[in-house]
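Structural prep section.
Before we set up the soaks we want a predicted structure of the protein with NAP in place, mainly to decide which crystallisation condition to try first. Input record follows.
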Amino acid sequence: MIRFSFLKSGDRQRSQQRPSGAEEPLQNRSLRGQIMANSGQKVVLITGCSSGIGLRIAVTLARDEKKRYHVIATMRDLKKKDKLVEAAGDAYGKTLMLLPLDVCSDESVRQCIDNVKDRHIDILINNAGVGLLGPLESISIEEMKRVFETNFFGVVRMIKEVMPDMKKRRSGHIVVMSSVMGLQGVVFNDVYTASKFAMEGFCESMAVQLMKFNIRLSMIEPGPVHTEFETKMMEDVAKMEYPGADADTVRYFKDVYLPSSIDIFEAMGQTPEDIANCTKKVIESNSPRFRNLTNSLYTPIVALKYADETGGLSVNTFYNLLFNFGPLMHITMSILKCLTCSCLRRRTISPN
Ligand SMILES: NC(=O)c1ccc[n+]([C@@H]2O[C@H](COP(=O)([O-])OP(=O)(O)OC[C@H]3O[C@@H](n4cnc5c(N)ncnc54)[C@H](OP(=O)(O)O)[C@@H]3O)[C@@H](O)[C@H]2O)c1
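Run finished without errors. Recording the tokens verbatim:
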């Protein structure tokens, strides 16, 4: 049995005040981490479970028919737990518990992992992330640092905290939610893309060392997914005035890029359930792949990069797609669908 003992001093007092024999509400115990994993269950810790992909992965694993997972769903603000708790249903308090965790804080990360019994985590899923979109001239260096602090250093912080125990045990699986934007640059997503590229480079390097300790490392690389991520970004974009950017750049961003981006989301978007199913497949595989594209429509785009090491093919293709064929985006999408023949599809991880 693996026991979690996350008990704050205030909670300790409250539990002492309870009349003896009175059953503490299950909900409180789940929040404090007192729920125990059964032997044989894998302990999975997931970051960023208040919404979107993280929430869905937590629920999918906690509701596993064979109850193979004990899920520690974390979020930086537990006041946002209601959506997750509702989606988890009766798994909450049984195979799913909650802990607070801000991936940008050393202290929060340490405290969270310290409160897991023996710091024993079998599978770490680094999902928390933030987006950033718009002309570079109008984005402050502080905003850019926030993206790196979450998307890159957040993952590094988590791995540093969890890896030593996995090394000792000579077992573990680290999963990182990357993106196709970790493989291919996308105009006006410059800094977000850079943060995912940084993580891909970090993981590619770490994977070799970790293999020696029998620790697996896998990246999930979704294309567009319909979550609050997209909504939050579009809301931010609508509010922005783009100070510092010239009129032409703002026009390309608003009138050319944004409509194309909306088209792409409509034509290619997956659901958080799709990504959760792909992630479950990856952690259940006997020989999980290092890279896992979830959307076969992206394989030709990624292939362009490897087909021409000078980079010309991908830069020119993206230029043409955006500025010359933008109004024909729907046709372009259909061509892409034809291009994704079955041999390319086999290279992706299918949600079905
Ligand atoms: N949606 C897409 O199109 C797409 C495509 C490819 C990859 N991804 C990646 O998928 C991951 C999840 O994104 P999503 O689409 O599910 O977006 P989402 O719904 O916005 O979820 C992001 C989650 O990360 C959390 N988070 C942000 N900063 C955090 C921090 N400092 N500490 C802990 N948690 C933090 C958010 O918590 P709060 O509620 O507290 O903000 C939220 O729970 C991200 O890494 C993203 O880069 C998304």
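Observations: DSSP finds 15 helices and seven strands in the chain.
Flagged for discussion at group meeting.
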